[in-house]
Amino acid sequence: MALLKLLVTIAITTVITIAVITTRTTTTTTVEHTSFDVLGTPTIRPSRFLAQKEVGDQRNPNAADHCNKDPEICNLYGGGGNNSTVKCCNNKCIDVSNDDKNCGACKNKCKFSQTCCRGQCVYLAYDKRHCGQCNNPCEVGEFCVYGLCNYA
């Protein structure tokens, strides 16, 4: 019975605390006045989510690419040109030289336990040119075993 009273007391205390906090935050609002405002007319600040960017600002890195509509967007990431490894895959700019789901070309998935190195799907555990990690070649005459050159 004492445990039940304790739980009811905690529940009531929690509800009262939440009610007090929410009424304080909704009743306290800030109004800004600038020097040229007429008294009584508050200045409304736009939300930071709705604020417009200036003309010279950089793109938001979290914004969607939509490279199907504008193919020049991918040139911003990889520098453009014929040697660029950034391609437009599924309406996104993707570096096909190191993406496991688009290795070397769009929709070219590497198999399980393979990694994309320089646009090729390789097994890091056994590839002499990429032993243990991309671009880590073994010396001449050495073998790559379990991602280590000349293991055991």
From TrEMBL:
Q: Which residues form the signal peptide?
A: 1-19
Q: Does the keyword S-adenosyl-L-methionine apply?
A: no
What Pfam family is a match for this entry?
Answer: Stig1
* Keyword line: Signal
Can the keyword Signal be found in this entry's annotation? yes
For this protein, the record's InterPro entries field holds: Stig-like
Give the similarity note.
Belongs to the STIG1 family.
Q: What is this protein called?
A: Stigma-specific STIG1-like protein 1
Annotated organism of origin: Camelina sativa (False flax)
The primary gene name is LOC104730702
